[in-house]
Amino acid sequence: MNGRLHHVGYVLPSIRDGVEPLRRSLGTAWDGVIVHDPLQSVNVAFLPSRDGPGPVVELIEPAGRRSPVRKFAESGGGLHHLCYEVPDLPERIRASQAAGDVVVRVPLPARAFDNRRIVFVRTSGGLLLEFLEAAGRP
Amino acid sequence: MNGRLHHVGYVLPSIRDGVEPLRRSLGTAWDGVIVHDPLQSVNVAFLPSRDGPGPVVELIEPAGRRSPVRKFAESGGGLHHLCYEVPDLPERIRASQAAGDVVVRVPLPARAFDNRRIVFVRTSGGLLLEFLEAAGRP
């Protein structure tokens, strides 16, 4: 039900300023692409694993004063959330609610993922999860 | 060079108290095993992904006053580090040093990973990385 780990979100004040040392530390390449997501008020970029199609590190910077990651970025940022790709997003949301977790907002299309829908869930343990509907869904 | 993402470390004050809500939120199972690692002064447990052999979430609680995660756990804890499994640990350490990152300690065998050696690296960007030597190495 939970799906596979798709990426780990990492917040930083500025992608442009922070990407090069992180890219070097991870021993990987960056495609130079920064995607603006107006619905989440963030800009994101992706650092792949060196070895093929495994989970990537998503760099996230705030876009605008009302960005949900602004405060965290201003305090220096860091590891932010885990994103799992799930075959059935509505079912996953129901499971989260049954587990007593808080679905932060309704599912919204995400520009960085071909407008597939994402949802953020604040777990009762405090961990922030993102669920991304798998490709090929309506 | 970087290898595959092996696990994501998550610090919490108590595995026993925190594992059940996290297990439920992740929609996965727990094998009930807690491993004490005296060299790292931590206890760890693992929550697998639902779908096969992907990266797992490693729960970490401090073991003793001198545990390196004690302060973080006392402040509530959260996402802590990314661990990559690498084919050549000495080469990876040299690459980290060349990237300007700080190797926290010499490689030490880790009980939770069949005494394969691990090393923690504080990157210049602030992200904490762990490197685990791949199985089958001397």
Chain-wise SSE layout:
Two copies of one chain form a homodimer.
Chain A lengths: L3 E8 L3 H12 L8 E3 L4 E6 L8 E7 L7 H5 L3 E9 L2 H10 L3 E2 L4 E3 L5 E7 L5 E6 L5
How would you describe the overall organization of this protein?
2 copies of one chain form a homodimer. The first copy, chain A, is an alpha+beta fold and 138 residues long. Chain A is 20% helix and 37% strand. The first copy, chain A, has 3 helices and 9 strands. In chain A, strands 1, 2, 3, 4, 5, 6, 7, 8 and 9 form a 9-stranded mixed sheet that branches. In chain A, strand 8 and strand 9 form a beta hairpin. The first copy, chain A, is globular and about 40 Å long. The mean pLDDT of chain A is 93. At the A-B interface, strand 1, helix 1, strand 5 and helix 3 of A face strand 1, helix 1, strand 5 and helix 3 of B.
Properties at a glance:
homodimer; 138 residues; alpha+beta; nine-stranded mixed β-sheet; 3 helices; globular
Brief account:
Chain A is of the alpha+beta class and 138 residues long.
Radius of gyration of chain A, in Å, reads 15 Å
Strand residue content of chain A: 35-45%
- Secondary structure: helix percent of chain A: 10-25%
Secondary-structure element string of chain A: EHEEEHEHEEEE
